[in-house]
Specification:
The complex is a heterodimer of chains A (289) and B (332). Chain A has 289 residues and is an all-alpha fold. Helix content of chain A is 76%, strand content 0%. In chain A, α9 runs antiparallel to α10 (253-283). Chain B has one domain (64-330): Orthogonal Bundle (MetI-like fold), CATH 1.10.3720.10. In chain B, α12 (280-287) packs across α13 (294-331). At the A-B interface, α1, α3, α4, α5 and α6 of A face α1, α4, α5, α6 and α7 of B.
């Protein structure tokens, strides 16, 4: 008996030590996971901040050898590309999301949900190739429109799922109150449910747009890039990300610096939208449980 | 006579009722027109989304027909990728993609499970939320920024510190030999591991959280230690974690910019992780605009088609695993 208790106690200490050790290991791995984030933020801020001035936003790129200059054309180009993508992708994504949330209890909807998830896993470079075959080959030259199509395809799955989730967050009592008053389903859905959910949807859309602004691979051979000022959607257009790609590989110190600055601007935008999205979706309606 | 009257009045009341209900039904049908349009309109857009995947596959197939007809299945096993002699084989890039992705998973998987355990089981709630947010933020950083960081920070560090160290201590293995450029499969794997970590860990965390806590509590009540109770949760979420890992694999295989910037871009197959390589995505990114002949472009599109099929299969399988598990828990 005595023997057994001793044995048990020794075993218990061993088990507790093992548990303590492994639990600490998981804490350490959480720390390690954060380290790259800290590194990336540290380097982008410290290397990018020196060129972050008003010139970066309003000046054109200077030719090789001259220092200074900015990326005004690239910033406008990115805005145009993202705008085009939104113009094409948002209506499709939002309407499909409404369908999933309002009428999504059939087999087709389940299949569609599965498809959007799968579509969101398709590499962005593949989407770029598809946009190339869809737009660039028939038009016979690179264009902002092709880049917009690529970004639209990339946005659609995110927008669809966010719209669906945000509509589902609206408390059932809202919908029931509307239907109880004899308001038809489409009016209830459009003027009551969507009106409640639109803030969440809007921030979700902003997040999707900011993610699209960070895409490079699908733009390489659709929008191509442009050293000059252009707002023509049927011509090649510059974008921030492609500029980063070109400037990072160029053997000029000044260009490398500007690549960091562009990266900093990009990261700031995306982080800002992520934080806004989180705050709005977390603080609002929690009554649907 | 009296009976007949009663019957008549009954029937008139009945008629009235019938007429009324018909009118009501008409009213309802009138209102339903709006609903009908609403449903069909949204359905129309839903079908567009659905067709998108089909159109993508079809477009790539049609435009790579030239290369598919010329090389056939040999495209997958051919080792040369030479635009000058117009011989295109996908083997080096397929091998490069698989090696760099699996190596990335090898690094990221244990870490991700650690993070998921910490976030779902251990972290105090005041720390858990900001930590989850940081991990999600890591997933939101554009791939090009990872690439920029890779070129200017990771690659020089590998060249001057890590590769000499590995060569000195593990140089007897064939994996750590050859010239040390920094731009290598090793660099690509490291950057990929950073990029897939947030995906695997956040999905695994969600899955571990959705495991019903009854079993865990029972184990704790019986005197199990924290780790032993966590083991029960882990055992219950095995398939889901596998699904999360596959989603990470899908991301790693399709990742383009960061890899293109650090892998060195050379279509060779080599045992050494110090050597530069190529992945399918980075070949497309690097050579598409330079491709001059039609066969060249169609070979690149065929690579994209292969990539598309691989990622769709992996993603579908992964989603299926995650979904079936979540539904199982919801039933309980």
């Amino acid at each position: 008996m005595e023997e057994n208790i001793k044995k048990y106690k020794r075993k218990l200490i061993f088990r507790k030590l093992k548990s303590f050790f492994i639990m600490n290991l998981s804490f350490i791995s959480a720390l390690i996971a954060i380290v790259p984030l800290a590194f990336i933020f540290y380097y982008t801020v410290s290397k990018g901040i020196s060129h972050l001035n008003i010139d970066f936003f309003i000046a054109m790129p200077k030719p090789v050898g001259e220092s200074g200059g900015g990326m005004a054309n690239a910033i406008v180009g990115t805005l145009i590309l993202v705008g085009l993508g939104g113009l094409i992708g948002l209506p499709i994504g939002i309407m499909a999301g409404i369908y999933l949330a309002e009428f999504g209890n059939n087999k087709f909807a389940f299949l569609l949900r599965f498809m959007t998830d799968v579509l969101s896993g398709v590499p962005s470079i593949v989407v770029g190739v598809v946009a190339y075959t869809l737009v660039v080959i028939p038009m016979k030259h690179f264009s902002a429109l092709a880049g917009g199509v690529a970004l639209a395809i990339l946005m659609i799955p995110t927008v669809t799922r966010t719209t669906e989730e945000m509509i589902r967050l609206v408390p059932h009592s809202y919908r029931e109150a509307g239907l109880g008053l004899g308001i038809p389903k489409w009016k209830t859905s459009f003027f009551i449910v969507l009106r409640t959910a639109w803030k969440g949807i809007a921030t979700g859309i902003l997040l999707a747009l900011s993610r699209a602004a960070g895409e490079t691979a699908p733009l390489l051979f659709t929008a191509l890039g442009n050293r000059f000022w252009s707002t023509d959607i049927f011509q090649p257009i510059a974008s921030l990300t492609v500029y980063i790609y070109d400037y990072a590989r160029a053997p000029f110190e000044d260009w490398n610096q500007q690549a960091w600055t562009a990266a900093l601007v990009l990261i700031l935008f995306i982080s800002l939208f992520s934080i806004a999205f989180r705050i709005i979706t977390k603080s609002k309606y929690k009554t649907n449980q | 006579m009296k009976e007949l009257l009663v019957e008549k009045s009954y029937s008139s009341v009945y008629d009235k009722l019938k007429r009324n209900s018909l009118k009501q039904a008409n009213n309802i049908r009138k209102i339903n027109w709006g609903d009908f349009i609403y449903e069909k309109l949204t359905l129309f857009f839903a079908i567009i989304v659905f067709l998108l995947v089909v159109v993508m596959g079809y477009e790539m197939y049609v435009n790579s027909k030239l290369s598919i007809d010329k090389f056939g299945w040999k495209f997958l096993s051919e080792k040369t990728w030479d635009p000058v002699t117009e011989i295109y084989g996908a083997l080096p890039s397929i091998v490069g993609t698989l090696v760099s992705s699996f190596l990335a998973l090898l690094i990221a998987f244990p870490l991700s499970i650690g993070v998921a355990i910490y976030l779902s089981e251990l972290a105090p709630s005041w720390l858990e939320k900001p930590l989850s947010f940081l991990v999600e933020l890591l997933a939101g950083i554009p791939s090009i920024v990872y690439g920029l960081w890779g070129i200017f920070v990771l690659v020089p560090w590998l060249r001057t510190e890590v590769q000499p160290f590995l060569y000195e201590h593990l140089g007897f293995l064939p994996f750590f030999r050859g010239p040390m450029y920094g731009f290598s499969i090793l660099a690509a794997s490291l950057i990929l591991s950073v990029m897939v970590l947030p995906i695997i860990s956040s999905i695994s965390r969600d899955i571990m959280r959705s495991v019903p806590s009854v079993q865990k509590e029972a184990a704790l009540a019986l005197g199990a230690t924290k780790w032993e109770a966590t083991k029960i949760v882990l055992a219950n979420s095995k398939t889901g974690i596998l699904g999360a890992t596959m989603l990470g694999l899908g991301r790693a295989i399709g990742e383009t910019m960061a890899v293109t910037m650090v892998i060195g871009n050379r279509p060779i197959i080599s045992l050494s992780l110090f050597d530069p390589g190529y992945t399918m995505a980075s070949i497309i990114a690097n050579e598409f605009t330079e491709a001059t002949s039609e066969l060249y472009i169609s070979a690149l599109i065929e690579l994209a088609l292969i990539l598309f099929i691989i990622t769709i299969v992996i993603n579908a399988a992964a989603r299926f695993l995650v979904w079936s598990l979540e539904r199982k828990w919801k039933k309980i």
